[in-house]
Amino acid sequence: xxxxxxxxxxxxxxxxxxxxxxxxxxxxxxxxxxxxxxxxxxxxxxxxxxxxxxxxxxxxxxxxxxxxxxxxxxxxxxxxxxxxxxxxxxxxxxxxxxxxxxxxxxxxxxxxxxxxxxxxxxxxxxxxxxxxxxxxxxxxxxxxxxxxxxxxxxxxxxxxxxxxxxxxxxxxxxxxxxxxxxxxxxxxxxxxxxxxxxxxxxxxxxxxxxxxxxxxxxxxxxxxxxxxxxxxxxxxxxxxxxxxxxxxxxxxxxxxxxxxxxxxxxxxxxxxxxxxxxxxxxxxxxxxxxxxxxxxxxxxxxxxxxxxxxxxxxxxxxxxxxxxxxxxxxxxxxxxxxxxxxxxxxxxxxxxxxxxxxxxxxxxxxxxxxxxxxxxxxxxxxxxxxxxxxxxxxxxxxxxxxxxxxxxxxxxxxxxxxxxxxxxxxxxxxxxxxxxxxxxxxxxxxxxxxxxxxxxxxxxxxxxxxxxxxxxxxxxxxxxxxxxxxxxxxxxxxxxxxxxxxxxxxxxxxxxxxxxxxxxxxxxxxxxxxxxxxxxxxxxxxxxxxxxxxxxxxxxxxxxxxxxxxxxxxxxxxxxxxxxxxxxxxxxxxxxxxxxxxxxxxxxxxxxxxxxxxxxxxxxxxxxxxxxxxxxxxxxxxxxxxxxxxxxxxxxxxxxxxxxxxxxxxxxxxxxxxxxxxxxxxxxxxxxxxxxxxxxxxxxxxxxxxxxxxxxxxxxxxxxxxxxxxxxxxxxxxxxxxxxxxxxxxxxxxxxxxxxxxxxxxxxxxxxxxxxxxxxxxxxxxxxxxxxxxxxxxxxxxxxxxxxxxxxxxxxxxxxxxxxxxxxxxxxxxxxxxxxxxxxxxxxxxxxxxxxxxxxxxxxxxxxxxxxxxxxx
Length: 873
What we know:
Layout: H1 2-17, H2 24-36, H3 40-53, H4 58-71, H5 74-86, H6 91-104, H7 108-117, H8 123-139, H9 143-157, H10 161-173, H11 177-190, H12 195-207, H13 211-224, H14 229-241, H15 245-258, H16 263-275, H17 279-291, H18 297-309, H19 313-322, H20 332-343, H21 347-356, H22 365-377, H23 381-393, H24 399-411, H25 416-427, H26 432-444, H27 448-461, H28 466-478, H29 482-495, H30 500-512, H31 516-527, H32 534-546, H33 550-563, H34 568-580, H35 584-590, H36 602-614, H37 618-631, H38 636-649, H39 652-665, H40 670-683, H41 686-694, H42 698-701, H43 704-716, H44 720-733, H45 737-749, H46 753-767, H47 771-783, H48 787-800, H49 805-817, H50 821-834, H51 839-851, H52 855-872
Helix pairs in contact: 2-3, 3-4, 4-5, 4-6, 5-6, 6-7, 6-8, 7-8, 8-9, 8-10, 9-10, 10-11, 11-12, 12-13, 13-14, 14-15, 14-16, 15-16, 16-17, 17-18, 18-19, 19-20, 20-21, 21-22, 21-23, 22-23, 22-24, 24-25, 24-26, 25-26, 26-27, 27-28, 28-29, 29-30, 30-31, 31-32, 32-33, 32-34, 33-34, 34-36, ...
């Protein structure tokens, strides 16, 4: 009904206005008039009207396709031109436009096929088609076929504008760029609206590094083909090469609106954002180009550099390593890859790459030194020494680089580093870095006499500078001339009363003699001037803690933190002091989970975890460990803490998952292998436990801990005779409540109840009776028919843990056996409230009720107990 009403209304409006529909021919004539007036938009409307009235008129199709082709709307043009050809329009008119449309879409094979099938065309048209065929062959890398096609075009009409265009392309293929440019300028002079000529001129100008001329050519190309996407892309690229980034970005943003996934457009946007230091978006757009099959070397480099600047080192590594094989041996990007490897801890790879790198200069000695240091920290001494050999091969003229070489050598215990430092000072005797490095080298090498000689030179040149005296004091200390040391440090304090080094010396000396107040006065000398000196604050706190007033030291640290809360040293000191002073609530009010990130130190993470552990806030502890693991997945401590938390929560399977991950990351740390055995035992997985035990180092297997594990595994297999001596050895080495419980359980399972009971009572007398052992004592007392001891043990458990269901229920049953039904009822009722679905608790309660005459209620609980037992089985 609605459609009828709309159609009727439309008809009524036409009739009422006295209008009648024009014919297709009339619309075409109107279109021609608009074209003559250069009113192209109106012409398109009229042609579409002509097609609406009669879709089978070839002329309207051709005219519309021609307009679309002139604007660069290649897909729309292709559709109309093909229809025009099918409707019988003149091929001489249609094919030149159709082949151009294919060219705009880079459809090279369709161009070749179309031209090879073309017949009966004029010489001029055939010439143009052959040139487009040649360009298609050039694009496909088929140079010989391209030149053959151009020869064919020249044979038909060497004067044709298209033949001249083709000859320009031949010059380009022969690398005669200037000759090609000269020819294309002649073509443009003859035919200034030939878009293909401007395209080639833009390419030639780019090859000649004339970015300004390239921009002008592509601007004209876009003007001639305003709707063509490629014309805008070429122009945007030219703007970028001409450093016109703002204009380029406007073009690119327009392209992205209609082509958000186009790889080349995303590449251009990424380049623009990178030069603006917008690395986040640069990486985003370049990676989109890569994902859409534009994984070129420049794109990988930009993506890698952007990720590096964002400190996403793993992503940077993925991008740069993907193109490693395409980089020259001396490419600076290879150096970037080495730096990334160092950041990721891939130190051996970095070391190998540096050893093989061509073109290293003395300026790379810092990189060599950094790689060497990290290899040393990993214990890869030989790999580190290889880099020192590389550094030694370089030629040095810069004293700073020579100093760095010397430091590298000394780090590797190569005393030739001292020669390098001395040579550096010969090149620049005023170098403070050289002097300081040489002084440290003498001290580290134990060359105290040489250090003293250097110190005396400094003192003679600058008698009012403390540097010479402090070096001399260190040298005299090395030579054990304590009297001279004190004399020299007193001279330092005469010149600089707040000097930390001298004051620390005297403070430590007084601490060693037990004179804490004297030590405190020296530290105050420092703190009055250097209020945020971390070492002084720490020493002051510890001294006052020993004097029984840690609040004084903590107050100083607190003041420093209030002034410099971003100072990592002070922040960690404040956290450590609060923890040491057991001020846990204050700790978590100052240091929260929200303040942590990937740069948080391992020490602070540890302290946060320990505080929540001490406060028994397991949910917050779990959050801390989750965030810590995400931020620093290579920190061993977080794995150990996660394993501990899972142990506390009884999540044994989850603990083993964490252990498996840790073992892969830290294969040389045997602690994780030992923990794996522990958790397999807790899960009762004997086979897995024995396998894990067999993989432990022999020294661990044969240790008291190893015997303890083996004893537990043997007990799980029922070999109590073998387990008992091993568990006793484990207990003797580590007499904890848990180990006592293990040994007693093995004795009990071997039916040695009296021995187990006697052992636990003796253990309790020595260490105090913990709940775990008290419950065992009660159970063993029952098995040994010592019911009074059992009752007293259960009462002790309930005093400590009033809601211990096991103790309440068992105590109720013992009283029931002694016919103390009222006493039994008080404990049984508490147990039922706490565990209303426990069959054993309900059964005890039912028996007590029955004896007290509550038969109906007793029957109710007895039935419930039986139903629960049935459902459990």
